[in-house]
Amino acid sequence: MINILLSVRRPWSDLILDGKKRWELRQNVPRLMKREHVTLWLYESGKDGERAIVGKCRMVSFVLMTHMPFGKALGLFIKDACVSKTHLRTYLPCFAWGVQDPVRLPAAVPLSDIGMARPPQSWQYISPEQAVILEKAASLTSKMCVECQLWSGWDGCCMSLASGHLWEEMPSDHPACDDFKPEEIEQEAENEGLDRQ
Predict the structure, then answer these.
(1) Distances in Å between the alpha carbon of 20 and those of 4, 16, 32?
(2) What is the rounded end-to-end Cα distance, in angstroms, of the chain?
(3) 38-49: per-residue pLDDT in tens?
(4) What is the DSSP code string of 51-93?
(5) Alpha-carbon distance 84 to 187, whole Å?
(6) Nearest of 128, 133, 179 to residue 152 by alpha carbon
(7) What is the side-by-side order of every strand in the sheet holding 23-26?
(8) In this structure, are residues 85 and 78 in contact, taking their beta carbons and an 8 Å threshold?
(9) Residue 176 and which of 89, 126, 140, 163 are 20 to 30 A apart at CA?
(10) Looking at residue 15, what is its pLDDT?
């Protein structure tokens, strides 16, 4: 499995995550084994972007484009790549990466959470360990721990980099920080309140 961090500006990042942009144009392509699974993690760059990792999708194919498509193929490609004819013409030759199955993260993940200081200019490989952190973030509910920003609401696992408990399961009654309690503890408090009435 290959994991890639891909820098994408708005509005194209939103178009990918909304499933409207199915081709992403790049000047080169990763080295891939046949049928290798590739996850693209989208870093939203630019002055209007989050400047953080906002989602993921699968890279399912790539095509070397040396010439403009013609006829109906040109119209379909421009629609699925969300680019203008002029933009495509000036960008050639290039690779068109086929992308599918977009997932928007519940909250943007800063590069520092995966031990990076700077985003790639275009794209770069990331390690399996960095991908695990991002997969955990992708699985979270929208309710986040104020302290560590990476609270797993389903298994009571505090993934705070600051606390050093990244891989250790915390006790189920242990809140991630003073400003947040797991949903189970909140539910118990509500139930106790109802019992007293």
Answers:
(1) 21, 6, 25
(2) 55
(3) 999 999 998 888
(4) SEEEEEEEEEEEEEE-S---THHHHHHHHHHT--HHHHHHH-S
(5) 52
(6) 133
(7) 23-26, 94-109, 52-65, 38-45, 2-9, 123-126
(8) yes
(9) 126
(10) 97
Residue-level pLDDT at 13: 97
Q: How far is CA 89 from the centre of its chain?
A: 29
Predicted confidence (pLDDT) per residue in 94-137, tens digit: 999 999 999 999 999 999 999 999 999 999 999 999 999 999 98
**Residue length, the chain?**
197
- Low-confidence residues of the chain, pLDDT below 50? 141-186
Do 114 and 4 contact (CB within 8 A), yes or no? no
**pLDDT more than 90, % of the chain:** 63
For 107, the token pair is 């909250």
Contact 4, 36 (CB under 8 A): no
Stated pTM of the model: 0.71
Which two tokens mark 23? Answer: 């081709």
What integer pLDDT is reported at residue 180 of this predicted model? 43
51, 17 Cβ separation under 8 angstroms: no
